Structure formats: C-alpha cells, structure tokens
C-alpha cells in the first residue's frame, strides 16, 4: 500500500444537520476539514417531517452555529400544536402546544432540500477557510484501515483519504457504522419508517385555512384507528407555501400487519378531518420516505471506535418523544460535540482520545439521557410485556376504561397527561398509546366530522413517475430471493406493493420443473433509498454511487 | 524547560520532543545538551524540531518553500496569496518533479488559471484557445520543436469532408447524421459567404462503392470512395494513408509524388473534416489530423460555423489587438465531467496553418435526416497504389460482438410485459411467433419482465436481455405498429413508444394506463388473444398494417 493518500485533520461524511454542525464546529476551531456528501447537492437525498427544534437545554442549536438559519433556511415557526385522536369519523382534538413548547426555544418547519443546500453553502465557506471544503457527488463506501486501525475513508469517486478524525454523519443506514460494527441493520423493532407527501398550497390559502399569519405555523398530529392498527401516527406541518403530510410507523408493526405505507398515507390524506385544510384540492409535489432510528433502542451509548465517531441518525440518535420527533436537533448537538471533542483532544496532542471525550460529552450534556431515558427501560419492561399490554388494551377498551377517560377529560387530566414530557417519553411501544387509547378517547369524547374529503392522491406509479432519478448500477442485491426471506419488503418498501409490477420489490410465483416457488424480484430503479429493505429483507445493501439514484427536490 | 534532554535516552526523547511547540524552550534544551552530554544525534533531533517550530511561525516564502514538507492544504493556502505567475510555474514544476500530487498540482494550476484569466478578461469565456508554449513558457514542450511539420504554407482549403463509416456493408447511423449536419452547415456557409463549397463524403472499405448514392441521398455533393477486398475491416495504416491521399491534392509538398491533381477541385486540402466518434472513427481522426499537422476536437456534440474574435497574441500575432477570424468551425464538446461544455476552435497562427479544422462527432448528436433519392451528386473512385507493407498486420481472427439489438427501424414491434408472468416461456414464444408474421418486426420488452425472477427455458432465454428494453432507460421506438401485450403503460415505458403510429394494447385490465394512449385495445388474456391473432394473421384473415393505416392518431 502506498502512503501518499491525501490527508486531512478531519473528514466528515454526510452533510445533513449532523455533518453540517460537525464541520462548522471543526472549522471554527481551526481544524482542516473535508466534508463528503453523496447527493448532487446536500439535501437531495434527505427526507424529514420535519420540525427542527432548538431546545433550551441543548448544548448546541442550529441557529447558534448558523446565525442566519431561521431567516434563510427554514419555513414557518410552529406556533400551535394539536393532537387528533381519531375513531372513524369521530375526532377528539387535544391541544399539545404545552408539550411542544416544553424545553423549546423555537421550532420551525423545514424542507430538507432547501435547508441542507443552504447549509452546504455555509459549510463550504467555513471549511475552506481552514484548508478543506465540501464536495458533493462523492459516496464514501468504507473505512480505510491500516494494521487493523481505522485511518480514513474509501470512496467510489476519489482515492482513499486519511484523517485524524472521521465523523460519520451519514444518516440512517450508515455504511460506516456498519463497517465498524457499531450499528447493525437487523431488528425491525429498532426502527420507524417515515413517509411523507409535500402538498402544494399557496401562502394565502394556508393563512385562511389554518388561521395563521405569515410568521406563524401549525402542527397537527393524528393517531387512532385510521392506520389499520399499525403502531404509529400521522403529521401535518405548514411550510411557507406547501404542507408536509406524512406518517411515522414502527417498522416491526408495519411488517407484522403487511401494511402498505403509501396506503396508510392515503388513509390520512383522504380522512374527512383533512377536508377543512385541503378543501378538495390536492397537488402532490413529492413523495418520499426514510427509515428513522428509535433512539430508545438503537442509540449506541458509545458511538465511536478509534478515529471514528458517529453522530445523528448514524448513531441512532433519533428521539421519538411520544408524537414529537426529534432527530435533527440531536444530530446537531452530537455533531458539534464530536467536533469539540476532537478539537480538544488534538490541542492536547492526544487526538486518539477524541472518541472517549465525545462519549463523555454526550452523557454530561444530557443528550444521551434524552435519547435513552432510563425511565423507558423500566417502563418498557412492564408495558411491553405481552400480558400487561393486553390488559391495558382491554382496560381502555372496556366501558369502565371509557368512563375513566371521560372523567379524566373533565378533570383536565387527559390534556395534562399528553402534555407531560415524562409520560410521553416512557410510553411503551405497544398498541395502547398509538391505537387503542386514542381510538377509545375519540369514541368516548370525539365529535364526528361532517365534511367529505374527496381528494385523490396519485397512485404509486404516478408518485414514482414524478420523482427524478439518475439511474446508476443496482445498489441493492437480494441475497435470498425467496418470499420467506425477503417478501416483507414487497409491502414495507414505500415504492412497492403487492400486485404492483412497477415497484422495487415484486411478489412472483415462478414455476420450475413442475413445482411453484414463491419469490421476490428486485429492480432498484424506483428506489427512494429509504433503507427499509436493508432491515426487513435479506439483501446486500449499499447506497448508490455519488450523484446517482433518486433526487428529492423538496425533502 | 519541561524536558531536560540530558535526563533521557535518545530513543524516548524522539516522541517527547514532538509535543514541544515552543522555540525558546527548544533552544534552551539545545543549550542544556551542549553543556551536558553533547550528543550529536540528540542535537540534530532538537535542531530539526526547532526548525519546524520556528518555520511554522513565519510565512513561507513560496519561491523556496519545500513542497515535500507541505500538505496539500498548506499548498492551497500558500498559493492563494501568490500573484506572480513565474513563481507558480516554478512551484508546479517542482511539485511535478517531487511528489507529483494531483491535488497539489490542481491547486497551483487553479491559481495559475485565475491569474491568467484576469489577464485575458476580454476573451469570450466559452472559447478555449490553447497555446501551451505561450501559456507555460518554462515547461517542456516536446512537440514544439517537432521536426516533421507537414502543415502547408499559404494552403488553399475548401469544402467539408465527412468520413462515412460502414459496418457489414451498411452506412452506420452516425454517418448519415454527419452528412445531414454537414449539408445544413455548408448550405448556410455558402449563403453567408457567397461561396459554392461542397460536402464531400469519403468511403473506404470492401465494396463500399455501392453506398455512394446513399451518401448523396443523405446530403453529399461528391463521394470519393476506394474499395479493396483487403479493406474489409478497419486497419490503421491503410485507412489513414488512403484518407490523407484522398484529401491532399496532387502537387502537395507532403503528398504522394505521383498523385495526379483532381480535375474536380483546385484546392490543396479540405477546409473542414468530420469523423464519427466511434472506435474506428476516433482512431482514424487522430491519425489523419496528426498527419495533416492540424488539431482535432474529439467527441463533439455540436458544430457550427461563424466568425470568432480572438485576442490571444499567439494566434493574432498582434498583442493587445482583437482580430476577427472568419469561417471558424466551432466544435462544442462536453468536458470530462460531462456537465459543462467547451467550444473548441482550431485557428491558424502566424507562421503555422492549422487546417483542416477537424472534429469527431458523438453518434446520436444529430438527427438522421430523411434521405432524398432524387438528389444528384458526383461519385469519384479514388485510385492509388496500396502497398503490401500497409497490410503487414494480419487479422487472423475476430469475434462479431452480439451487435446489441436495435429495435428502431422496424415496421412492427411486439412488446411483452409482466402479463406473461403466468407462463413466461410461453409468453415469449407467442411474442416471437407474432413477430414472425411480419417482414420488418422484432420483439421488445418492458423493464418489468427483464428484472423479474422468471425462469425461461433455454431457447427463449437469450431474448430476455436489457437490449430489448423499451422506455426511458431502454430504447425509443416509433414503428408503424406497436403491439403491447401485458404491459401496464408506466410513464417510463410510455416515453419509449408513444410516438408509434398505431398502438395496440392487449391487457386484462381495462383500467391499465396503456389503454389511455392506445389506438386499439383488446381486453383479455394475452395467452388467449395472441394465439388467435397469430392464427388469423397466418391465414391472412387480418391485415394489421391496413388496420394501422385506418387508425386515427390520438
Ligand atoms: C418522515 C420523517 C419525519 C421526520 N420528522 C422529523 C422532525 O419533525 N423533526 C426532527 O428533528 N427529525 C425528524 N425526522 C428525523 C430526521 O430527519 C433525522 O433524524 C435527521 O435527518 C438526522 O440527521 P443526520 O445529519 O444524522 O442525517 P441525515 O440528515 O440523514 O444526513 C445524512 C447525510 O449523509 C449523506 N450520506 C449518507 N451516506 C453517505 C455516504 N456513504 N457517503 C457520503 N454521504 C453520505 C446523505 O446524503 C445525507 O445528506 C424525520 C424523519 C422522517 C423520515
Ligand atoms: C427511473 C426508472 C426508469 C425506468 N425505465 C423503464 C424503461 O426504460 N422501460 C420500461 O418498460 N420500464 C421502465 N421502468 C419501469 C416502469 O416504471 C414499470 O415498472 C414497468 O414498465 C412495468 O412493466 P410492465 O408493464 O411489464 O409490468 P406491470 O406494470 O406489472 O404490468 C403488467 C400488466 O399486464 C397486465 N396483465 C396481467 N396478466 C395479463 C394477461 N394474462 N394478459 C394480458 N394482460 C395481463 C396487467 O393488467 C398489467 O397492466 C422504469 C422505472 C423507473 C423508476
Ligand atoms: S428498495 Fe429498499 S431502500 Fe429502496 S425504497 Fe424500497 S425499501 Fe427503500
């Protein structure tokens, strides 16, 4: 092996919020930093709901690192926050603004293409100052090792690059985390799948239909019986001149119910409750999806190895606080803390200690406590135990439970419970909080929606047709194409469906020598790179080469 | 002083000393060592460190910076402040001689370019005028003192010559595309300059004479051909010799002594030459243009002729002045990333002529024109001795590549989709049987079939390849009749076939998208419908092409 590889003090892989925060902090500390991003532009690969939070208790916030952020990169601030419990046409709405505002300095809706590409510009300027820069269209495909030690990264498009610190901010399905053995892609219980549609809506219509001013916005959340019993919920956020409407489900539940993510999204889009906002008009600008880690189970408490540090989704740092989803803000904190850790270690002449310092900071700054609350470990031991879960389920379902609900509501307890960050962060992952309780609440307390919602969301073929692809070589290979091994992807893949020939995964019965085999076939052309099949099917899963694959315009 | 060197062995002093960043402290250590044990290697160690630490504080003087000691980032930082081109060129040369790091060189070159650009700001930025001797006077220019310059002095140049490549006795599409483009260019040229210059097609090969009329039909005014059975396959030496002999008129200083002057022309060499950017065309274009001692813009995607204002003194010979060059072939080509375009010009300069202005053209850049069988032109058989020497390289064996399936140009395309899933082998067999009912027909497939896990029996398996895919990431076809059996009509498939004159869809699902853009729709199972269709065609009961003629185009 030759040793004339290029060397930088730090390499940051991925330019989402985690990578941007890491790179900016490194540059501010004078560290020579190279940032590599696989998209044609930052944000072209990314999907969020998304509300980005600046938490009062956080060590870093995005506008602290990028002062113009709110005026340049985000959409509307969220000034009202509601949860709708749905049972059929019955809806009980609870104002959750208190929960939303707990520990929140501000929170804005964002569209990732716009947000990340703006960040890209700033990060490039900052890192150039210290002898580095940001390159797009470069996909890192592994770790460079010497004598077993991680010393850099290898890329599809460039020669290997060495660095004293490697910050993997490469998001969910981090190939670097997998390469280092710090994260695995095996257990569906550790993940959510998020799917969303961006819906065109002029600012004037938003003002009128949501009753907000130019500098105000609303978040609506939905749970109950509208998702075929799949654990999870829906969201609607107002952007400047569009809406983000989507769903987030537990992946294991999605697989267990063999539910079709696009149909669950459509169930939300076409629910009568949404008529007040859509009013019969529906123009979908983009359909997208992404896997989301569940930090309670997936966050690695010690996300580093040698020179490698993982930040953000790559380390599983995505906190679902009941209905509130906090991934971007934690990615920012973690990215900046990792950068700070390296800079301190380097100044002391012991760059090798960066990882340990980073781990300590995550703990001391309270980030890890939010990601992996100890309360949850205790609560889940009880709550997720099958017997207990079904008892609680039947309790809320029973008339007695209902009476209790009504009483609780009258006493204002319900609103208090939902608005308690404590209750929300320890909610067990059973159907109770997601389906049974909201349904019961809606049945007991809800009022029926009278409007009809007759919008027609596009079918899957049109959704795929509206996306932009630069098709490259297939980036996913089926290791086992039997339906038993990989069939779950047919429904779980957001761009595939049973009886749909135009998706990535297709259910096929193939006759060979007289007997019939149940197989799946895979064509990665329509793939939106969500990562789901890496977990639920038996695949050799990689990201496409730099600049190849799907390109989100909105995100 | 934290570390007293006299307390340490040299071996453990090495790592320790790396942490000392303070020059004064190092000097103190040096003094201590001199006063104490005074070990030479220890002193060198400390001195080295001192040099490094002290060096970091000062700004490096670029003209004697030690590039070997610098990271690429250091280099990048340093060159940013250099204003002097000579210093940069010196750095570039030293980097080349030293570590020769691509990234370091590109930093230096980038800075050079910026400085040079600001020197020539008046120049049209699209126009790349390369003159390496001028640009990098300090570098080696191995071709600058080339002994065998064969460019003409005061040559006469006229006409646009197009090398028409053939395969299996046929003109390949790009040859037709180039002829069509050349026709258009020269018509405009003649209008603009009041000339009557021609498009000259060149054919070289075995039995190519019979393609001459076709070249005329596609736009040539004259066709020069040479045929010989030894020219059945492309070979570098004879093809280059022949092309150059054709192009250089009799009496050319570097041409064949006994070459007669052509009676149809009175110029020395072509004004423009155009070649296809195919494997063979790329080779021939490079060899021929080198023989003419001119330039070549390879892999062009567009060509146009217009005047160009040039201020580069290397070209104009008049520093500070802008000179208008006439009749310049502008050759547009993608850069290596494929995202940006440069326009290449091939210009004479004082004391040296750069003609013919030559380009090779990426196949598919221009449309295949409609042939005009009525067009008239002159066909000239070129005569010259072919020396045995040129054929010393013998082709002993060759493989015909699985030529790729070209579905364009068929009257009928039968396309199959995932509707064949029940029995994929039989589906393909039915498709092939249907194809056989027509004269110019072939089998196409949706991507859905190609990427399926279907198992095909050996005799049909060969048909299921991406080469038969129709659509966005496959081929685009416009036959008279397109029969789509078991295809849903996804938009990515549609873009490959919806220009077909008549579309007939066979599908079990009346709501399939394809029904919306078909002229005829047969609802039903393809395994039943296709046999019936084949049967009635065989018996002559049905004339699909007649049906097509009567269909309304909607
Ligand atoms: C539907 C949905 C709703 C969500 N809602 C919210 C919300 O409301 N609030 C919230 O805070 N979070 C939300 N999230 C989660 C949030 O999107 C993530 O937690 C967050 O984006 C993580 O940031 P990151 O920087 O770690 O990774 P990412 O934002 O995923 O960035 C990773 C970057 O790395 C690049 N990359 C990946 N691999 C490579 C490689 N090999 N080489 C080079 N570059 C590479 C990618 O292109 C990408 O730009 C939501 C997610 C989804 C899917
Ligand atoms: C970026 C990108 C590029 C693509 N490029 C291409 C491309 O170049 N070419 C291409 O073709 N596709 C392409 N696709 C794929 C395309 O989207 C569709 O998935 C594909 O064309 C579907 O193939 P199909 O119509 O055969 O299958 P399906 O969509 O599954 O349709 C099968 C049809 O057969 C009918 N059928 C079923 N049984 C029978 C029967 N017994 N008799 C009659 N009818 C029956 C069904 O009703 C259905 O309409 C691309 C996709 C993407 C995302
Ligand atoms: S193929 Fe896999 S990664 Fe691609 S969209 Fe489907 S589930 Fe997601």
UniProtKB/TrEMBL annotation, chain A:
Native organism: Halorientalis pallida
Pfam families for the chain: FAD_oxidored
Entry protein name: FAD-dependent oxidoreductase
Chain ranges passing through the membrane: none
Source organism, top-level taxon: Archaea
Cofactor: FAD
InterPro entries linked to this entry: FAD/NAD-bd_sf, FixC-like
Keyword Protein biosynthesis included in the entry's annotation: no
Keywords of this entry: FAD, Flavoprotein, Oxidoreductase
Keyword Flavoprotein: yes
UniProt GO molecular function: oxidoreductase activity
Automatic annotation (TrEMBL), chain B:
Biased segments, Acidic residues type: 56-69, 120-133
Single GO MF annotation: electron transfer activity
Composition bias type Basic and acidic residues, residue spans: 96-119
Domain Electron transfer flavoprotein alpha/beta-subunit N-terminal: 160-393
Pfam (any one): ETF_alpha
Ranges where the record places region Disordered: 48-69, 96-142
InterPro entries named among the record's database cross-references: DHS-like_NAD/FAD-binding_dom, ETF_a/b_N, ETF_a/FixB, ETF_asu_C, Rossmann-like_a/b/a_fold
GO BP terms, alphabetized: fatty acid beta-oxidation using acyl-CoA dehydrogenase
Family named by the database record: Belongs to the ETF alpha-subunit/FixB family.
PANTHER family: ELECTRON TRANSFER FLAVOPROTEIN ALPHA, ELECTRON TRANSFER FLAVOPROTEIN SUBUNIT ALPHA, MITOCHONDRIAL
Protein name: Electron transfer flavoprotein subunit alpha/FixB family protein
Taxonomic lineage: Archaea, Methanobacteriati, Methanobacteriota, Stenosarchaea group, Halobacteria
């Amino acid at each position: 092996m030759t040793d004339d590889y290029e060397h930088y003090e730090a390499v940051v892989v991925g330019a989402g919020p985690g990578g941007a925060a890491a790179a900016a902090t490194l540059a501010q500390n004078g560290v020579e930093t190279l940032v590599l991003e696989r998209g044609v532009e930052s944000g072209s690969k990314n999907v969020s709901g998304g509300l980005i939070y600046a938490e009062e208790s956080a060590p870093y916030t995005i506008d602290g690192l990028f002062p113009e952020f709110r005026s340049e990169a985000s959409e509307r601030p969220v000034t009202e926050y509601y949860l709708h419990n749905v049972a059929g046409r019955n809806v009980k709405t609870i104002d959750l603004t208190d929960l939303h505002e707990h520990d929140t300095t501000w929170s804005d809706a964002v569209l990732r293409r716009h947000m990340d590409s703006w960040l890209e510009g700033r990060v490039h300027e900052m890192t150039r100052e210290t002898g580095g820069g940001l390159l797009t269209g470069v996909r890192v495909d592994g770790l460079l090792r010497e004598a077993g030690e991680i010393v850099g990264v290898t890329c599809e498009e460039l020669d290997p690059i060495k660095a004293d610190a490697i910050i993997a901010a490469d998001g969910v399905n981090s190939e670097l985390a997998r390469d280092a053995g710090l994260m695995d892609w095996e257990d569906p219980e550790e993940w959510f799948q998020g799917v969303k549609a961006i819906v065109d809506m002029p600012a004037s219509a938003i003002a009128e239909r949501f009753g907000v001013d130019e500098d105000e916005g609303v978040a609506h959340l939905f749970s109950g019986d509208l998702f075929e019993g799949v654990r999870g919920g829906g969201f609607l956020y107002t952007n400047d001149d569009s809406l983000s409407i989507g769903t987030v489900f537990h992946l294991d539940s999605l697989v267990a119910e063999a539910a079709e993510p696009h149909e669950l999204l459509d169930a939300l889009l076409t629910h009568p409750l949404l008529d007040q906002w859509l009013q019969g008009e529906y123009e979908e600008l983009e359909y997208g999806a992404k896997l989301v880690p569940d930090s309670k189970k997936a966050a690695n408490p010690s996300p580093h190895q040698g020179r490698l540090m993982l930040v953000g989704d790559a380390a599983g740092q995505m906190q679902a606080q009941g209905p509130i989803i906090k991934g971007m803000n934690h990615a920012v904190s973690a990215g900046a803390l990792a950068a700070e850790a390296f800079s301190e270690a380097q100044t002391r002449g012991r760059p090798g200690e960066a990882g340990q310092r980073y781990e300590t900071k995550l703990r001391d700054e309270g980030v890890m406590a939010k990601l992996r609350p100890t309360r949850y470990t205790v609560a889940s031991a009880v709550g997720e135990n099958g017997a207990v879960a079904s008892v609680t389920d039947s309790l809320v379902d029973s008339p007695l439970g209902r009476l209790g609900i009504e009483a609780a509501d009258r006493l204002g307890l319900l609103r208090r419970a939902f608005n308690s960050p404590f209750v929300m962060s320890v909610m067990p992952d059973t159907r109770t909080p997601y389906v049974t309780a909201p349904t019961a609440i809606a049945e007991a307390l809800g009022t029926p929606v009278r409007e009809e919602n007759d919008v027609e969301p596009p079918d899957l073929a049109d959704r795929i047709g509206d996306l932009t692809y630069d098709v490259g070589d297939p980036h996913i290979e089926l290791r086992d194409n039997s339906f038993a091994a990989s069939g779950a992807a047919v429904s779980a893949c957001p761009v595939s469906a049973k009886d749909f020939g135009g998706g990535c995964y297709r259910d096929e019965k193939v006759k060979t020598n007289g007997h019939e085999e149940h197989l799946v076939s895979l064509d990665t052309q329509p793939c939106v790179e969500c990562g789901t099949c890496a977990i639920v099917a038996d695949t050799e899963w990689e990201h496409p080469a730099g600049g190849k694959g799907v390109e989100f315009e909105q995100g | 002083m934290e570390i007293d060197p006299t307390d340490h062995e040299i071996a453990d002093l090495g790592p320790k000393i790396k942490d000392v960043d303070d020059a004064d402290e190092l000097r103190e250590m040096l003094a201590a060592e001199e006063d104490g044990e005074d070990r030479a290697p220890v002193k060198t160690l400390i001195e080295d460190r001192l040099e490094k630490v002290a060096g970091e504080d000062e700004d490096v003087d670029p003209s004697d910076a030690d590039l070997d000691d610098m990271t690429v980032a250091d280099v990048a930082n340093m060159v940013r402040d250099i204003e002097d081109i000579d210093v940069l060129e010196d750095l570039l040369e030293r980097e080349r001689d030293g570590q020769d790091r691509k990234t370091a060189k590109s930093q230096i070159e980038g800075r050079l370019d910026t400085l040079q650009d600001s020197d020539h700001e008046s120049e049209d930025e699209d126009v790349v005028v390369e003159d390496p001797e001028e640009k990098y006077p300090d570098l080696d220019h191995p071709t600058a003192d080339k002994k065998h310059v064969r460019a003409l002095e005061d040559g006469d140049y006229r006409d646009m010559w197009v090398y028409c490549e053939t395969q299996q006795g046929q003109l390949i599409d790009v040859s037709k595309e180039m002829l069509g483009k050349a026709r258009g260019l020269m018509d405009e040229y003649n209008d603009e300059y009041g000339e009557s210059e021609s498009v000259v097609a060149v054919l070289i090969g075995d039995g190519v004479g019979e393609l001459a009329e076709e070249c005329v039909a596609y736009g040539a005014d004259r066709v020069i051909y040479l045929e010989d059975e030894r020219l059945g396959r492309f070979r570098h030496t004879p093809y280059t010799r022949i092309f150059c002999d054709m192009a250089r008129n009799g009496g050319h200083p570097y041409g064949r002594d006994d070459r007669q002057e052509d009676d149809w022309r009175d110029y020395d060499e072509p004004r423009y030459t155009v070649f296809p950017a195919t494997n063979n065309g790329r080779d021939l274009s490079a060899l021929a243009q080198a023989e003419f001692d001119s330039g070549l813009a390879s892999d062009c995607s567009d060509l146009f002729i217009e005047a160009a204002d040039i201020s580069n003194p290397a070209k104009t010979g008049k520093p500070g002045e802008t000179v208008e060059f006439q009749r310049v072939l502008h050759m547009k080509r993608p850069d290596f990333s494929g995202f940006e375009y440069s326009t290449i010009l091939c210009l004479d300069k004082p004391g040296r002529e750069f003609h013919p202005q030559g380009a090779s053209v990426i196949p598919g850049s221009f449309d295949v024109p409609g042939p005009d069988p009525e067009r008239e032109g002159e066909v000239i058989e070129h005569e010259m001795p072919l020396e045995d020497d040129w054929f010393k390289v013998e082709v002993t064996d060759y493989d015909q590549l699985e030529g790729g399936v070209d579905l364009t140009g068929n009257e009928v395309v039968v396309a199959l989709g995932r509707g064949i899933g029940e029995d994929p082998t039989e589906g393909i067999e039915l498709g092939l049987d249907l194809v056989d009912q027509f004269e110019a027909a072939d089998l196409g497939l949706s991507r859905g079939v190609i990427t399926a896990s279907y198992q095909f029996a050996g005799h049909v398996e060969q048909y299921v390849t991406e080469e038969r895919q129709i659509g966005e990431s496959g081929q685009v076809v416009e036959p008279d009749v397109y029969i789509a059996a078991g295809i849903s009509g996804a938009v990515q498939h549609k873009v490959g076939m919806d220009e077909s004159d008549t579309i007939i869809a066979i599908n079990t699902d009346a709501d399939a998208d394809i029904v919306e853009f078909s002229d005829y729709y047969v609802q039903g199972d393809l395994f039943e419908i296709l046999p019936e269709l084949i049967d009635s065609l065989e018996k002559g009961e049905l004339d699909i092409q007649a049906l097509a003629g009567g269909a309304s185009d909607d």
